[in-house]
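Dear all,

This email documents one entry for the complex benchmark we are building for the journal club exercise. For each entry we list the sequence lines for every component of the assembly. Then comes the predicted three-dimensional structure of the complex as a token string, followed by one or two observations. Please use this as the template for your own entries, and keep the labels exactly as they appear.
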Amino acid sequence: MTDAAVIECTDVSRVYPGGVRALDRVSLAVRPGDFLAVVGPSGSGKSTLLQLMGALDRPTGGEVRVAGTELGRLSDGALSRLRGETIGFVFQQFHLSPLMSVCDNVAEGLLYSGVRHRERRLLAVDKLTRLGLGHRLRHRPDALSGGERQRVAIARALVGDPAVILADEPTGNLDTANGDTVIEILRGLAAGGTAVVVVTHDREVAAGMDRVIEVRDGRIVDVPDRVTG
Amino acid sequence: MSRLRTGDVARLAARGLRGHPVRFLLSALGIAIGVAAMVAVTGIAQSSQADLDQKLDRLGTNLLTVLPAEDLNGEQTRLPPTAAAMLRRIAPVTAASAVGQLDDLGAYRSPYVPEGQTSSVVVAAVDTTLLATVRGEVSRGHWFTPAGSRYPTVVLGAAAARRLGIETPGTRVWVGDQWAVVVGVLAPLDLAPELDPAVMLPAGSAQQYFGSDGTATSVYVRTDEDRVAAVSDVVPATAAPESPELVSVSRPSSALEAKLAADDALDQLLLGLAAVGLLVGGIGVSNTMIIASIERRSEIGLRRALGATRPHIAIQFLAESLLMSVAGGVGGVVLGSLVTAYWSRAQGVPPALPVWVGALGIGLTAVVGSLAGLYPAVRASRESPVSALASL
Ligand SMILES: Nc1ncnc2c1ncn2[C@@H]1O[C@H](COP(=O)(O)OP(=O)(O)OP(=O)(O)O)[C@@H](O)[C@H]1O
Ligand SMILES: [Mg+2]
């Protein structure tokens, strides 16, 4: 506990309208450099947890703190800003626009930060080059393989230098080799000090990560076969 | 606070529309048709007005037409031979020219036209000052010259020339029971269209060769611009001192103005229809934007995850709606201007389309676009980020 937590959940619950208790008094802290896997069966509440950590949603009970700020009291505008500045999202479906080049898709990650168009593009080129996509800048996402697309999405999440990367099933649409590449990239980010949280139900993927949290029926359970070392 | 630059809003809107070009074009077309109709109706009305103003500038509004009425027995009366001369004595009158229709005479291309076939033209004795008084123009040949007026010469009104099939001066025409030579053909007379079907003889030769008694069926009077009404009041008693009640005075320029004013009502109706067209176009834009806000939920969710606030999403959709509508407006103004230009050419009228018509058309589409985009924009911005992202 040397570093202050970037995300801290305390007794967090999320009850959806209609009474589904997707999360039930979950507590969890994510620190800079963490490389954390969230696993659990379908419908256990993994995505719900990630959405709360990413300030996309507010808890119905308990407290979520992102970068030291408690979400419950924030306005929609303040939540938006927090997402834009502190968090980078990566989704299973990539969510890339077919109307823009790869470079512009990545630059879109800074659209709401007030950075100028030219500068956004320069930063996008930088991130894409680092992820080995420097030769694909002008292509449309449709022309890329699934693995490349997910790397573009990661570049977009990274372009604003967020403190946390939240990835929901980032390897879900990829084959093993491409999935491994993506996980390796994320590991590199964590090694550089970014907190990385990956939701996955691929046990093998989770096994390669520093910390694994298992969610069942909206609660965190201890993982008996935790990898040590 | 997150912030979105104005330039980026424009970029977002343009890109959003590029996503569905056909849909965009069709929605914009709806707006364009309404605006084009508005611009064309206004442009045509303005051009007609400008044409009339120009005409009246040239023709003057100070011409009076003096006509004898029917008497109590229903007989058409005539003005005395002295009428024009008497009228010229009124101080503000600058010119007075008499026309005396010769009802017994017909005019034909040749003497062999079968008996009983009526002439479609009228024969009239006219003062040689007539052309100047009504400010008419000669389209071919010339007006009566002092030398020519001693021989039987005629000038044809535009309609008379057409009906007789005579194009070239020098052609002979059979008037009454003798030949006369056509020396000129007039252009249509805007202030005296009743003379267009006339075969005109100079008053002198009409009396000498054609049995005219010098009485008049109309007198055209030019007056001082500022005294038209005053002159008009004294005309009947001056022209026909014995029976002033049988004289009517009219101002032909007023008739031209009235004709245009009558077109105004039709213009209003057409403008109303164009406005309805624009409204329907706006509903089309609104509909397109609602569909877009539903289809693009995951894009909305992603943008919210990237830091967009609700107003940012609303502004993006509003800008798309505005751009679509204004693009249609610009197209409509261009189209409406082309229609006006084409119409003016066809009518031989100078096209007049004030800049404010175009500006108003585009301004109106901006209002329509904003209103049309309001609901879709609010709807899109209300989307919760979580459910929007889950929708794919
Ligand atoms: N918007 C919502 N409204 C109502 N119930 C919801 C909503 N979102 C999720 N749920 C319910 O909450 C529970 C947890 O959902 P969540 O999406 O977090 O599960 P998950 O662990 O991510 O599952 P999966 O592995 O299938 O993605 C499920 O029972 C789900 O049906
Ligand atoms: Mg999930």
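Observations: Chain B touches chain A through 32 residues (CB under 8 Å). Chain B has a mean pLDDT of 91.
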